[in-house]
## 1
Amino acid sequence: MAIYIKSSYEIDLVPQFRDLKLKLISGDFQFSISNKSIKKYYNELLLIKKKFTNDIITGSIALNLFGLIDREISDIDILIKDTDRYSGYLNETYGDPETGMIDNRLGYILFDFKRGFFYKKRRYEVDFFKDLGTKYIEFQFEEVKLKIQHPLEIISVKMRMSRNHKHYRDLEIIFSKFDI
């Protein structure tokens, strides 16, 4: 006789997401970019300001900027409208075929960026996704308005991919910040 124990990251998070939406609608909180996170991701924001000013920041860097999670990022996720802007997107499997793939993913490109003369060059993996009419919030960064995807949309995407431990853990952290 075999006994199967369900992994904790397979628990349904829909009620927590609903409660988060209700808290937002009732005005219990508003999303805002934290100054602490701007300092932490200053170099990444400089790259975005220089290369992707009219595009939309998404993914874990966006959730970090809102202060919803606090973990290292492995790449920078960007939503773009002009999908032919770059050639040579590197496209490896993204998402889990059983739990949810990301249909609008174009692939990633490596960018070398140097902040200034006295700084080392750093390589960034930038993952591009087609912008399908995303809601975003604008924020000021060094006299430029940058766009960042609305956190509820990012959380919704993570919900579809929540069988993946990383995404489930992010959701747990986000919901716990709001006592959900």
## 2
Amino acid sequence: MANTTTTEVAEIIEKKVSTIVTDTLIQESVMIPSVRDFSALVGMGMDRLDIPLFNELAEVNVSEVSAVTPATIDPTASQLPLDQHKSIPWVISDKASYQSKLNIVSEAVRNGAKTLAKGIDNKLIADLDGSGATRTALTANPLQDITLAKQQLDQADVPRSDRFIIASPAFCKSLLDDNTIVNANQYGSREAQQNGEVTRLFGFTILESNSPNIQEDGFIAFHRQAVAFARQLSVSLKSEYKVLEHHWAYSMSHLFGSVITDATRVKIFDGNALP
């Protein structure tokens, strides 16, 4: 067994993998841009991250004769466990390396990054689905479902900005098939579609995912501050040459975690709860 990090092949891989992985994760993950990312606060020796949560401050009237009564800031913490250590291993034989007309390593890295992005999305959506948030049965009208989600978040005093809906392909089809709805480019802007969004409607950025954690035909409405994400170990690629097996062995891995920080900012519309 030889350490190949100083070989020409490994040097080429090392230079390309970071760019490929970063670009692919950005393109393929629909959830990472919609949640709070605390990766910059994570360091070595940590198995979790304590995220401070603050109580809401109250407005008071100012009196000319007496002091105002201040609210006591009593921060609590939500623990974000860094427990999602994922790896994608593969091998490439000498024969495949010699005879392939493609850059096999680059393609494998790109495909691996897609799988990692999907894994992150599935974890974040599973957190939302398991948050204990209010569940509502879908109606036959997708626009009515979205306005009801808006009403529920409004009544919970959730900020109007940074609201998202992650929806199943079936719900997105029902929405876009509605003759009263038009997609993003018909509004006069293609920005939403270019960002991988379905559309923007009633204050929500609507995203689509085929994650099994979204109930069939359903969707989850949430605010960015409802979910926290952090990566402790960025995606790394390690390789070594197996002399007796005549192949290169590769492994891509990363380490991350996520947690629900405010379930009141999550509303679930369950396709399986249809009356």
